[in-house]
Amino acid sequence: QVQLVESGGGLVQAGGSLRLSCSVSGIIFSINRLGWYRQPPGKQRELVATITSGGSTNYADSVKGRFTISRGNAKNTVYLQMDSLKPEDTAVYYCNTNLGPTWINYWGQGTQVTVSS
Q: Any idea what DSSP says for residue 76?
């Protein structure tokens, strides 16, 4: 059974930094892509950043230049370094992965990030 476990959320003041981590276990297919999404209060879930197995990255315009996505050496771990945080970054952040030839989609349970002004 595939599991994604996130950590690193919390409360931070505007301008501060946080680092989110996500570890994927129970894999029987190759990882095609890892990513982070977020759901602000009262809004729909949105893309934050993704990274492919080849290392290509993609960012939402709202986080470009402030957030950095990366993979661990074990390749089943993904990080999101968040700098210069703003109150509008407040959301539940979800780890996501796509596995195997049919790109099966899996989600973590989410971790809360709150940025105070």
A: S
Three-state SS for 72? coil
Tell me the C-alpha distance between 56 and 50, whole Å: 8
Buried b (16+ CB within 10 A) or exposed e, 58-75: ebeeebeeebbbebeeee
- Residue 36 contacts residue 25 (beta carbons within 8 Å): no
Say how many C-beta atoms besides its own lie within 10 A of residue 12's C-beta: 17
**pLDDT above 90: residue 29:** no
- Mean pLDDT within 30-56: 96
Among candidate residues 38, 18, 20, the one with its CA nearest the CA of residue 83: 18
